[in-house]
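Bench notes, afternoon.
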Amino acid sequence: MASFDPLLDKDGVRLTVDDAIATVTLTNPAKRNAQSPALWRALAEAGQLLPGTVRVVLLRAEGKSFSAGLDRQAFTPEGFDGEPSFIDLARRSDAELDAAIAEYQEGFTWWRRSDIVSIAAVQGHAIGAGFQLALACDLRVVADDVQFAMRETSLGLVPDLTGTHPLVGLVGYARALEICATGRFVTAEEAQRTGLASIAVPADQLDDAARDLAEALLAAPRDALIETKALLQGAVGRKYEDQRVAERAAQGRRLRDLAGVGD
């Protein structure tokens, strides 16, 4: 059943649900959807609020930019209201600093859950934390004006919002290192050519293209898609023979389910 009232609408994040498709929207275009700890917590909450009927999650952003990255206010002595500044965090113990970063990462970790497929629709700038948020999703559809960049290293930091693992998996170690170390822009053409993006379209077609992909994903039976996604996610860490075993086990479960035969 469609829900026209947002299930969540705070701190620059809005969650709406239309039957099997949920949409998470970044809603602060005036600041180019710059990110903060409050936004990261709202992203984590959006994942927790997803109804069990949701099969596909669309991530989109209002305005000309998907996300310009971390709000630079985080680096000022005053930081954000009610939040420790990054300068304050740096003075804390290793355990406290680790716990804070782990909490920030929670907004980026649920997008690859096996029971959903997530699609990022990305336009304009997707820089630093914005790039990593797009990388958190299973798939990316990009506008022809997209500009990805990983600027953390250029600022004396490292990408720490879960983006390094998917980036290496998509483009390989050498290209990932070069992208991170130089902080250069990755255009729509390169993104599609290297596998960062599934589709590149004119900016005015971005929402429709992402929605079309979501509808196509819904055509497959849910349980079969869940098993297939789990197989592909595990393939990188398995040896060939282990993957064969995993395929047989998954297919056995599917055949028994289709035949109505219990374990």
